[in-house]
Amino acid sequence: MSNTCRFIENGETRAESDLSDLVWPNDPAAIPDWVYTDRRVYDLEQQRIFRGRTWNYVALEVELPKPGDFIRSYIGETPIVVVRGQDGEINAFENRCAHRGVEFCKTYRGSAKQFVCPYHQWTYDLTGKLKSVPFRRGVQGQGGMPPDFKMEEHGLRRLSVTTRRGAIFASCADDMESLEDYLGPDMLDQYDTMFDGRPLKLLGIHRNIIPGNWKLYQENLKDPYHATLLHTYLTTFGLFVAGNKTLIVADEKGRHSSLCSRRPEGRLESDATTSQIGSFHATMKLADPRVLELIKESDSPWNSNAITIWPNLIAIRQSNIFSVRHIVPMGPDEFMLIWVNFGFADDTPEMEAHRLRQNNIFGPGGFIGIDDNEAIKFVNDGLQRSQPRPGVVSLGRDDEPPETVITDRAIRGMYRHYREAMGL
Amino acid sequence: MVEDFNCDYADTLDRGEIEKWPDFFTDDGVYRLIARDNAESNLPLPLMYCDGKGMLKDRAYAIAHTEMFAPRYTMHQIAQVRILGFEDDIVSAQANYVLYETLIDEPTHLLQCGKYHDRFLLQGDRLLLKQRNCIYDTLLIPTCIVFPP
Ligand code: FES
Ligand SMILES: [Fe+2]
After folding, report:
1. B98 has which bridge partners?
2. Mean pLDDT over each residue of chain A, to the nearest integer
3. Which terminal residue of chain A, N or C, has fewer Cβ atoms less than 10 Å from its own Cβ?
4. Is B53 an 8 Å CB contact of chain A?
């Protein structure tokens, strides 16, 4: 029998805090400060969103190629372990011993036949089932666990797991719809552009911690307005700029979205559009243009897809960069980002070198990665140090053509879903 | 000599003269900033990667002119320089580095500690970096890394 211990929070909840002092402004284009700062809201998000009816990204299959391979990961703020069982199936469970709560897995990755908690050596199999308890019957007839102690009730709390084309998702709910239904047809199409079926090759991982609420990062990737203003590398070299062929896709509920863009041939001229972009740098030339080279490897009409999958995944395809960013909330005003970058198993050494060079654009040291991380910290500085004042997301319309670039449509969609999921 | 080189390198960066940074390298110089976890797991992805002077200059230009970030001071401390070998005109060396960062209205914080793994070209009476691999222990980066360690 496999491990049946679960999180029981679906439906069943601990006493909820009183949130009646938090009032959403009577304007669909206003976002109140307290969604980014209030501890009670944060705790409720962990329960209703991350431990609720969502599929959370937790790992790439290429990180656990063989039976016994595992990584540390997170669902929301909760540490978990993702492991490939002896049968090749992927299991995920809480990284917390069922005895006295030890976070037992302290390495990023490894390979194991079983997990032994270091504190009192309770031992779990690769499905999280409790296999042995030292001195369960005591010593010389004295002590030990009570006779009615049931091993099967003291496994690690396990999660539902699903995979698609190399990415692994987990849920605390045990009756989730399929990932395909969760994404909906349009977002599934976007997902499959990113994970196009080729076997992946792991290139490496960056980790950083950003002062700010985790939702600011989802918003950032649903915000084409900033993309065409803040980022010199995107605007000047046409990677994403107002005037490009663009498409904004969202699922029916507004939780997931994708910003698609197509690079123009050659470089942009100064014109009426670029003249409004402070970051556009008409005279800028690269001493080594290899970084921006676009090597064709796909039939997609888009050269970039910035995909957000609710609640914790950003998947980026930009020119020849492929990476996922795993959002890990760490309190109302802090989150961790785990950037997992990959290429494909059939990459030539030249292609891999090219991806590594191009990856200078993103990440916590990237030409535009720095811009976003700093911008989010600045938002947090504003939130923490000033008096509350709602944010404004009124660009564009909700029924506009999907090619519209100067719009907050995707952000408004996310908050419509958020309010429903949170009951706010 | 390596110590003097590192002193100049640190002073130049800490004065904020990022556009002089490429001058410390040969034309084919390689700079990599890599998380120790990636390095030890044979994962090739650097956080910053410059393959040749062109890319070093483009990185310096981006920092000086195009990236958006809060103004900051950096302070490099480079210690435990060790010469590992000297063959033809190539000196292999390593050193420990610590990088502090100071932003407006915030206390100074530790941004990174790590190790330089260097290969220098001895050219007349001066050294130039053919390769600097910075392997950092500070895996969880506070916000971001703007100036190269
Ligand atoms: S806390 Fe894990 S065995 Fe006691
Ligand atoms: Fe951005």
Report:
1. B77, B113
2. 94
3. N
4. yes
